[in-house]
Amino acid sequence: xxxVELKLLGMWASPFAIxxxxxxxxxxxxxxxxxxxxxxxxxxxxKYNPIHKKVxxxxxxxxxxxxxxxxxxxxxxxxxTGPSVLPTDPYERAMTRFWAAYIDDKxxxxxxxILKATTEEEKTDKITEAMSVLELLEETFKKCxxxxxxxxxxxxxxxxxxxxxxxxxxxAAEKVFEFKILDETKFPKLMEWTERFLSTDxxxxxxxxxxxxxxxxTKIVKPRWAAASSQ
Length: 231
Fold this sequence. Notes:
Blueprint (H helix, E strand, L loop, with lengths): L5 E5 L4 H13 L3 E5 L7 H6 L8 E4 L2 E4 L1 H11 L11 H27 L3 H26 L12 H7 L2 H11 L10 H11 L2 H4 L5 H20 L2
Parallel strand pairs: 1-2
Antiparallel strand pairs: 1-3, 3-4
Helix pairs in contact: 1-3, 4-5, 4-6, 7-10
């Protein structure tokens, strides 16, 4: 990277910002981190993501890159350090992008639905939906990992950080609603992968504690959702 200066606008509990920080750490890239207050968004955020005004935003010198999956690909292309995040084979790269988009679509929506559920029936439906997604990802891991430790093979890759960035949120949701979704009997390969992923140094450096995320969603996020739904 040489003299390239990187800045990252993020928010500590955002899975999308977490995944970018993991890859920056994995690559050994130096960057300046700016924590955003999403109720009082900074001038930097308005300047560098004027369309959506969302985190994460990577600033490379005075140019901004938005949307976490796009940022991960950008980092992979400009960096000469650390393992490649995406496979080199064109077909495998295409399939990796497909599954990453699937994870962000299905896992994020399922988690949001669980956390927003107001009735037991609604919660049960969303948990069932999340379990169906994990069943498919259990099989996907077997195919993508080819018997190795991670979706990306021997090292953390694109799918690992895409799904892995949701793990603490999933664990926090289990505590909030007192149900088991990360089930060792139903998803043995994913659970082994979970332990390996969370114990990796570049992940431990940025992943928030489950208790902190649980408190954040219980005391801050859910009351906001409740207030919004009552209007």
